[in-house]
Design a protein that fits this description.
This protein has about 300 residues and is α/β, with parallel strands linked by helices. It is built from 13 helices and 10 strands. The strands form 2 sheets. An 8-stranded parallel β-barrel has the order 1-2-3-6-7-8-9-10, surrounded by 6 helices. A two-stranded antiparallel ribbon has the order 4-5. The longest helix is centred in the middle third of the chain and has 17 residues, at about 150-165. The termini are far apart. Bound molecules: ribose-5-phosphate.
Length: about 300
């Protein structure tokens, strides 16, 4: 039976103490709904404010890319070290165990292949299915300056509107067509368009000159793609510079899963992203873990 006395007898009302208010740690997200913030808070670590996303969605237009021939063999061992998984719904359902508690950023565009015009994408996932998959965020690509620029921007607008209805954030990927220049002017334009249209965070490439301007002019967080496989020290240096110049993390694929020692590499990347480890020390960490794992 309920204890009726306790209704009036409570004494710890904290009279005079203002209610606790914890500022939200994700750039540009302070005015979003609770569900939206909660999902972004699963993506961006509340202590560092940053994220290590593991991207393995390449097959949606490239087929079985090197390192992704068997995602169960190459990616599952990396899952414990990633903050977030970025993949397609096909791989999520068929390979990733539903017991995994890692937040998922779902690739929601498709419709082209590497043999044709890359910018010719459509939205490839209905929001209902994203909800069924319990994702932390949804994502599509915009191709500024490419033949299907307008369609790709329309995809982004639709995805943001669909996600907003259910407090699911959208990450906009700034795709670069084969012929496009990868410079500050381009990424200033592309990332800002994405944010102005309502993307909750944006994935860009790192550029040597002017990246700080890109992160500064973008009112929401920027995470960087890794791009083509580089020597480990170069990839760690790129991540280090990006973080130093305002990136809120990485969404890295090939430089992790194509590394000689992917489990060591993802931990070295995480040390750079979350602990500001400098690239040489991160490489030492990589070598140490690699040697341990080879024993
Ligand atoms: C491109 O196909 C995907 O969006 C990848 O997720 C993205 O390019 C990041 O992967 P990577 O680090 O291999 O460039």
């Amino acid at each position: 039976m309920a204890d009726k006395d306790d209704i009036t007898e409570g004494k710890d009302f904290g009279i005079g103490i203002p209610q606790a208010h914890t500022p939200f740690h994700v750039k540009g997200a302070h005015a979003l709904d609770w569900g939206m913030q909660n999902r972004l808070g699963r993506i961006f670590n509340p202590e560092s404010g940053r994220t290590v996303m593991l991207a393995f969605d390449h097959g949606y237009f490239q087929g079985p890319a090197t390192g992704l021939e068997r995602i169960d063999l190459s990616i599952l061992p990396l899952v414990p070290y990633a903050d977030v998984l970025m993949c397609t719904r096909g791989v999520l359902r068929s390979v990733i165990p539903p017991s995994s508690t890692k937040p998922v950023v779902l690739r929601c565009s498709g419709g082209q292949s590497i043999l044709k015009e890359l910018s010719n994408e459509t939205i490839a996932v209905n929001i209902d299915d994203a909800i069924r998959l319990n994702v932390a965020a949804i994502t599509t690509q915009i191709y500024i300056g490419a033949p299907y620029e307008h369609d790709s921007i329309k995809n982004l607008i639709k995805l943001i509107d669909d996600g907003n209805r259910y407090s699911i954030p959208t990450m906009a990927v700034t795709g670069v067509g084969a012929e496009m220049a990868r410079d500050a002017r381009y990424f200033l334009l592309a990332t800002r368009i994405a944010a102005e249209l309502g993307a909750h965070y944006v994935k860009s490439y790192y550029i040597e000159d002017g990246f700080e301007k890109v992160t500064s002019a973008c009112p929401v967080p920027i995470v960087i793609a890794g791009g083509k496989k580089l020597p480990e020290l170069d990839a760690l240096t790129m991540a280090y510079r990006a973080i130093n110049e305002g990136a809120a993390g990485v969404d890295m694929g090939r430089n992790i899963f194509q590394s000689d020692a992917p489990v060591a590499m993802i931990q070295a990347v995480a040390a750079v992203v979350h602990n500001d480890e400098d690239p040489k020390r991160a490489l030492e960490l990589y070598e140490t873990i690699k040697a341990e794992d080879n024993k």
